[in-house]
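Final report, Chapter 2: Outcomes

The project's central promise was a pipeline that accepts a single protein chain and returns its three-dimensional structure in a standardized token representation, suitable for archiving and comparison. That pipeline is now operational. To close this chapter, we reproduce one record exactly as it appears in the project archive, with the input sequence first and the structure output second.
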Amino acid sequence: MITVRPGRRVLQRLIPRADSVLLVPVSLPATLLSARRQNHLRQPIPRHITLLYPFVPPRALDVEVVRAIERVLHGRSAFRYQLTRVGSFPNARYLVIEPPEPFIELIGAFERAWPEYPRYGGQFATTIPHVTIAEGRQMAGIEPSVQAHLPVQMVARHVELWRKHLIRGWRMYSRSELAPMRSPSRPGPNHRSTETPPQRRSDTPA
């Protein structure tokens, strides 16, 4: 049995761990969260969808890591998704992503490229891409006010790599672009759609 001295426990709490994370940034409409909730959930990293965390240690990041990220993304196009409702974890509330499959596939591709860095250290058997909007005491009563502004239409255009410096905190290390979205093929002159086009909210970004 290994015994950790009390002094070491204190140092582990006081000294921040050096980390890095692969993510897709998310820019939410200003109307979605109140200013009070925005202030309570100020994060050192912009709001995002986590792809891999913890990732390569900051001291090991270099141009080869960035090139490897871009190899995983090669041939992949930007894609649309929606934030549709509020979901719950035991200690957090989050925005549900639909469809989740493009993110799950992207996460799987990065995990195959870096099997030594499973998402969240392999703690969870199920992958649930999400955008955290409240934690702890701030979870109370958030669902009705947020749900009124959903769904939100979004586009994933690039992947960012962030690293945590022990003194300066989190900083973006690199950004890797996805290919432009493919334009849908135009129907022939005699084609008639039987589907009703979705109505896009005027206050939601694409």
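Archive annotation: The chain has a mean pLDDT of 81.
This record, like all others produced under the grant, will remain available to the consortium after the project formally closes.
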